[in-house]
Amino acid sequence: MMRAFRTLVLRDTRLAIRVGGGAGMAVFFFLTVIAIVPLGIGPNLKLLAAIAPGMLWVALLLSALLTLDRLFQADYEDGSLDLLMTGALPLELVAAAKALSHWLTTGLPLVVAAPLLGLLLNLDTSAFGPLILAMLVGTPALSFLGSIGAALTVSVRRGGLLASLLVIPFYIPVLIFGVGAAGGGGVAVVPGAGSQSLLLLGAVALVSVVLGPVASAAALRANLR
Amino acid sequence: MAGMSELTASQRFQAFANPARFMALSERLLPFCAGLTAVLIAVGLYLALLDSPPDYQQGETVRIMYIHVPSAWLSMFGYMVMAAASATALIFRHPLADIAAKSAAPIGAAFTFLALVTGSLWGRPMWGTWWVWDARLTSMLILFFLYLGYMALWATIEEPVRAGRAAAVLALVGSINVPIIHYSVVWWNTLHQPASVFRIGGPAIATSMLMPLLVMALGFTLFFVTLLLVRMRAEILRRRVRVLRLARTER
Amino acid sequence: MQGFLEMGGYAAFIWPAYGLAFVVMIGLVVQSVGDFRAQRRLAGELDAGRAARPRAPARSTGPDA
Q: What interface predicted TM-score (ipTM) does this complex get?
């Protein structure tokens, strides 16, 4: 079973890297959103530095949402999903494998890009460490929670926007604790709030790793039977 | 319903699963529910607008509370009904359960919307701004999004049984997330005044204000139940229409 | 009466609140009852059609549920 899991992860990862570069587009979108922020609110460096952690997280969220509909759609359309559902690997693990692959090909590249984009917003280099750590802990939650939205809308053509709308409320705790762990949102004023939010972020991520695959499998079964 | 007392609980449960029985039962219940709703709301309005005193600090604006607080309660009640119905649909496969969930959503969403707008109208004279990002209002806004997403999912998937199961999954995921979301919002912001009615030591507001509040809350709840029955009846008929139309073209 | 309508100067907030509640709730009732009546009429028409011609040939109009 572990071998089947690993095979699925590798297959999806290879597909994502090869076909149309979903990862590249997400990072490009991330860059675009961050780049237009100063165009919108002015180049005041102090203001930009103040909003940098929050803005980076919001843009990260939106970029992660972009590639959600690739999670199950392609396999649904060519029938591979039916095969996977009747295969040896439990559907929950199938969903988990796909979410993991999504994190590897979308989440991780976004995390790598984030500090560099932070420079555009005058993010202090001392904040890089907390930001990267927070995003490393938080992006799996984005992938696993996002898979629920993708699974719910798998039978809907062009269901990407609906999937995003369904998933954004679930992203809010990740956002709140993620920004807190990155040192933004006023946590510098309250001692210990940064590490507390990192722990809470970790808790949310753990819940999502369990809830995501279970709910996604249920949603897939609802849509495909 | 002769002989119902001889059936086991699960058989009685199954009996209500029959749409025809539900239609008959709800038809008998409706006038009673509607009448009770009207009476309660009328009494509540009288108490709220005419028979209760203005607040020492807030003046007459406290009267908005008699709409805002019951609406907020009903918005949460609505989601709980949706979640319970969804769980029943997924676990027990009760055929009326996902109809109940679908019917409850717009009513709950309407109350959420009312709570948000009346909250805003209440807050403006008190806090000076139309919107304040405090824990309660923010959580209510997110709840509104959850409702809208749920309704959007129902509207997007055509086949009713499939839509019902997917929506049920969404409602359950939502209800698991609501405490997490709420906690994160509270953590994020601690501005709003503490809940002044259901506190451990008893209600903290005067009886003269508690009565209109409770009567209105009860009236709104009966309103919810009445409309839920109406909408469920409409949905049962809608599915029948769909089946009839499909059968017609298959010959 | 004047004092009642003015609500201590807060009329601009209180009456829209009650007014909106009235509009939303009545609107919900109208939409719900209207929808029920429409479905009941449709179901009645379809049932009558079936009773009149139980072996009617397939119609060309497709379903639009």
A: 0.91
